[in-house]
Amino acid sequence: MFTFIKNDLPASIVVFFVALPLCLGIALASGAPLFSGVIAGIIGGIVVGILSGSQIGVSGPAAGLAAIVLTAISALGGFENFLLAVVLAGIIQIVLGFLKAGIIGYYFPSSVIKGMLTGIGIIIILKQIPHFFGYNMIPEGNFAFMQVDGENTFSEIFKTFKYLSFGSSLIATIGLAILILWDKVLLKKAKIFRLIQGPLVAVVIGIIYVLITTGKENLGISSEHLVSVPIPSDISSFLGQFRFPNFRAITSADIWITAFTIALVASLETLLCVEATDKLDPEKRVTPTNRELIAQGSGNIISGLIGGLPITQVIVRSSANIQSGGKTKMAAIIHGIFLLISVVLIPRLLNLIPLSVLASILLVVGYKLAKPALFKTMYQLGWKQFIPFIVTVIGIIFTDLLVGISLGIMVGVVVILIKSYQNSHFLHMEDISNGKVKYKITLAEEVTFFNKGAILKELDQLPEDSYLDLDVRKTRYLDNDIIEILEDFSEKAKSRNIYIKLISEKGIVENPDSYIKFFNLNPKVA
C-alpha cells in the first residue's frame, strides 16, 4: 500500500490545496455550514478512498449537487432534515451497487467523456480568472454558467477588471510563474523537485507574502481574499460544528424524494467521473463501478450522519492527483487526513493562504484538461466524434456539468442512430442476361429496430420484375421488427413480381413462405 508513497505523498499535498477551497466554496454555494464541506472532503478522502476500487480517483463534495442541496435545505425545513436525506441517499447507492447498476458507466460515449474533461477544464479556467485577480464575489466550486450573484461566467470576468486587487494579482502571478517553472524546467533537473511539488512552494510563498505585507495598503491582501476556515475557540466549539440528522422526519415523502434525487445525480456524476478518470490514468486501470457505488454510498451515509454534504467522485481533484503523479489510492486517503489535521490543528495558518494562489494552481489543472491540441485531434477523427465532443464542451460552459453531458449523450445517441441507419445493410446492383436487374442486400452482423427505416426504404424502392438476393450469412442478431418487415415485403413482392432468394448459413431458400417461421426454426442463422 505504501509502495508508491514517494509519488502519492507529494500528489496528496497538491490535491489538498485544490480540495480545501472547493470544499469551503461548494458548502457556501450550497447554503450549508462551511464545516459541512470540509467534513465531506475528509470522508470522501479517507472513507471512500479506502473502500473504492479506484486507484487515482478522489471524492468529496461536488459542484454538480450544489443547486440541489441549496433548494433541499430550504424545502425540507432545515439542515438536519437534509442530512437525513443524505444518509438515505447513501443507502440507495449501496442498493444500486448490489443491483449492478454501475454497468451504466461503461456505456458513455468516449467523445462525450473527452468533451466533459475539456469542458470542465475550460470552465475551471474561466471561473478562476476572477479569483486570480482578487475578485471573490462567487464561492469556489460554483461551476454553473448562471451564478449565485446574478452574473454569468463571462460577465463576471468583465466585472473583475473593475475590482482588481493588486496584492492578490501579484502573488497569483508569482505563484503561476513558480508552477510553470516547476512543471517545464525543474521537474527535469532533479528528483527533489518531484518530492517537493510546485503548488506547495507557491502556497508557502503566498503565506509569507501575506505575513510580510499585512497592513500595507497597496501590497496587502485583505481577509476576504484569503481562505476562510472556521476557527473553533476550544475542543467543545470544534465538536459543536458537527450536526446530526433528524431521524424523526424519516416518514416525510419530501425527504425520500430528495434522497432518491441525490442518489441518482451523485451516482451518475460518479460514474461519469470514474470513466473520465480511467481515461486519464497513465496505467489505464479500470475501476469496478459497482464497488464504486457501494463506496460512495458508504461515504454518504457517514457524511450525513455527522453533518457533511453529499459526496461524489470529482474530476477536478482526481485530475490534479493524476497530473501530480499520484499512483495509488493512498494519495486520496492522505489528502483526507491532511484536511482533518489542518482544520483541527492549523486553521489559522490555512487562513493565511491567498485564494488567488489557489486559483493559479487550478488554472494549471484546467489547462492540462483542456489543451488546444485535443480540439484538433477530435476534429481529425471525423464529425461523428467531433460533434458530440463539441456539444458537450459548449453545453458545460453555457449551462452546467450535468446538462452539458446530457446534451452530449443525446447528440451521441443521434450519431449512433445515423451510423446504424447507414451500416445496417449493403445494397449491390448488377444486370443479368435476361434483361432483369438483380439486387443483393447483405445484412450487417447486428440489425435492430433502429434500422427499420433504412431497410424498408430500400425494399420499397426495388423495381417490379426484379431479383433480390437477401444475404444473412454474417448476421448474428436480427430484431423481430426486421423479420416482420421481410414478412410483409414477401407479400408485396408477389404482386410486384420480385423474385427473392434468401441466402443463409443453412443454405439457399427461394421465395420463402414465412420469414418468421424460417428464423424461428433457425435461430443461429441470425
Structure description:
The chain is elongated. It has 526 residues and is of the alpha/beta class. The strands form three sheets. A five-stranded mixed beta sheet has the order 3-4-6-8-9. A two-stranded antiparallel ribbon has the order 1-2. A two-stranded parallel ribbon has the order 5-7. A hairpin with a 5-residue loop joins strand 3 and strand 4. Helix content is 60%, strand content 7%. It has two domains: 304 residues, no CATH class; 98 residues, Transcription Regulator spoIIAA, CATH 3.30.750.24.
Offer a quick outline of the entry.
By secondary structure, this protein is of the alpha/beta class. Helices cover 60% and strands 7% of the residues. The chain has 2 domains: 5-100 and 165-372, no CATH class; 424-521, STAS domain (Transcription Regulator spoIIAA, 2-Layer Sandwich), CATH 3.30.750.
SSE order and pairing:
Elements: H1 5-29, H2 34-51, E1 59-61, H3 66-75, H4 79-98, H5 110-132, H6 153-160, H7 166-184, H8 192-195, H9 198-213, H10 235-239, H11 253-280, H12 289-306, E2 311-313, H13 315-323, H14 330-345, H15 347-350, H16 355-369, H17 372-380, H18 383-398, H19 401-423, E3 425-431, E4 437-443, E5 446-447, H20 452-460, E6 467-471, E7 477-478, H21 480-495, E8 499-504, E9 507-510, H22 515-521
Parallel strand pairs: 4-6, 5-7, 6-8
Antiparallel strand pairs: 1-2, 3-4, 8-9
Helix pairs in contact: 1-2, 1-13, 1-14, 2-12, 2-14, 4-11, 4-12, 5-6, 5-16, 5-18, 5-19, 7-9, 7-16, 11-12, 11-13, 13-16, 17-18, 18-19, 20-21
List keywords for this structure.
526 residues; alpha/beta; Transcription Regulator spoIIAA; five-stranded mixed beta sheet; 22 helices; 7% strand
